[in-house]
Amino acid sequence: MWIADGWKEYEVIDCSGGEKLERWGDFLLVRPDPQVIWNTEKTHKGWRRPNARYHRSKKGGGEWEFIDLPKQWQIHYKNLTFNLKPFSFKHTGLFPEQAVNWDWFSEKIRTAGRPVKVLNLFAYTGGATLAAAAAGAHVTHVDASKGMVTWAKENAASSGLSDAPIRWLVDDCMKFVEREIRRGNHYDAIIMDPPSYGRGPKGEIWKIEDAIHPLIKRCTEILSDDALFFLINSYTTGLAPSVLTYMLSTELKGRDGHVDAQEIGLPVSANGLVLPCGASGRWESR
């Protein structure tokens, strides 16, 4: 497992009974987590007095209970600053476990010894975009949600990266890749964080089980000859690390590189365990 253990302002304090108690800067949140199927005694006082709690509904979805939480606040990871706010379905606008991938590819970009063009698909609020840009890459950030791209730009400004070479695009990821193929454009690295289900800006339907492999296949057509890496993240139940390995290995088999895939996770302060938080597959050149 790849563990995101470099945080100073975020931690999973404890987890039990389908929930996790987290510290986001100065604030404690209780949020549901489907991986937490065990029950242990909730002794930390934060369980009883969080700043906010997200309550799941048995009918699906849920709602936030705000006790003492601002509408927006910030946390930092190394030289990056993220603006957080509670919004739909338990989210805050950041997935802290992804920091383990940010560290991995940032080192590859910094030590490449050449300009690096990165394409970030399903780029959300820009965590990977900012990490890549801070490491010196030129980044193309693509997401179907105008609101998410606006939020990512705010994070870039807060991180001192407003003038960084980042191209911000609201677009359907597959359609964008197909246009880039026709234009003859290429990238040295590709990052993608596809949802299980989603819609493009014009209502295009995305189902990961149908669309992920065709997208990977098309993306290999815009990888440069001396590509640096290809990273896929997945939070879809059933899409195991071995599946990510197989897809990357199959589509990149003609290149001189190495594929690895693992669960990614966050350390739990209360018991020293690691909470699994999805999976990542990495291809990197030799």
From TrEMBL:
Superkingdom: Bacteria
Matches recorded under SUPFAM superfamilies: S-adenosyl-L-methionine-dependent methyltransferases (SSF53335)
Pfam families in UniProt: Methyltrans_SAM
S-adenosylmethionine-dependent methyltransferase domain location: 61-223
Record key words, sorted: Methyltransferase, S-adenosyl-L-methionine, Transferase
Gene Ontology biological process terms in this record: methylation
InterPro entries in UniProt: Glyco_hydro_b, SAM-dep_methyl-trfase, SAM-dependent_MTases_sf
One MF annotation (Gene Ontology) recorded for this entry: methyltransferase activity
Coiled-coil portions: none
Protein's name according to its UniProt entry: Methyltransferase domain-containing protein
Source organism per UniProt: Sellimonas caecigallum
